[in-house]
Amino acid sequence: MTKSTMTKKGAIILLFAAFIVPVILAKFALENDWFSRGSTNKGELLQPVKDINAVLSDQPKRWRLLYTLPAECDAACQNAIYSIHQVWLALGKESDRAEVTVLITPESDANTTQQIATEKNIRAITTTNEKIKSLQLNTRGNEILLVDTLNNAMLRYDVHDDKQAAVMASRDILADLKKLLKLSRIG
Questions:
Q1: Same domain for 30 and 75?
Q2: Residue 118 contacts by C-beta under 8 Å, 6 or more apart in sequence?
């Protein structure tokens, strides 16, 4: 073999390696979780999603910020209602595509139920504890759910006793909801 033949074979091997080695490394990286998979959502992704059709089936197709009113509405409960209402207001011109929804049971705090009834931007839906439990929803009022237009709860957010922490958490809800509204043509 001549030196030029060896150089041509080396160039072909080098060219082959330059294209194949990165593909093989990427495959190993994906299979072995060598990197942290990036996610852009701020809330906790529910897997599988929770189907909420049993209580929302007769409602218009909208994105929803869903909260279940507990038996006693403490500071965390008040902050949750305030936060989701502020998120809805912050949507501006997109607010007609989303809705603040509070599920109320016969055991829910009566004073807060009356307060919600006076709010024109909050939809109160009365349901039973049995229906809420069958949907595996939390009745303690310690979570806010982001529900899509097909009535699937897909993201979960914690509620906070501290007003400042609640405001900071509502920024996360707003960021997720704006991103979903931008990507969605429904609702």
A1: no
A2: none
Domain count, the chain: 2
d(CA 13, CA 131): 66
Per-residue pLDDT tens digits for 122-164: 999 999 888 888 888 877 878 999 999 999 999 999 999 999 9
Q: Return d(Cα 138, Cα 183) in angstroms, integer.
A: 28
Q: Which helix (H) or strand (E) holds 156?
A: strand 152-158
Q: What is the CATH number of the domain that holds 103?
A: 3.40.30.10
Among candidates 48, 91, 54, 78, which has minimal Cα distance to 178?
A: 91
Helix 75-90 to helix 163-183 angle (10° resolution) is 40
Structural contact between residues 41 and 144, judged by C-beta atoms closer than 8 angstroms = no
pLDDT 10s digits, 83-129? 999 999 999 999 999 999 999 999 999 999 999 999 889 999 999 88
Give this prediction's pTM: 0.77
Distance between CA atoms of 180 and 176, rounded to whole angstroms? 6
Domain range for 8 is 1-35
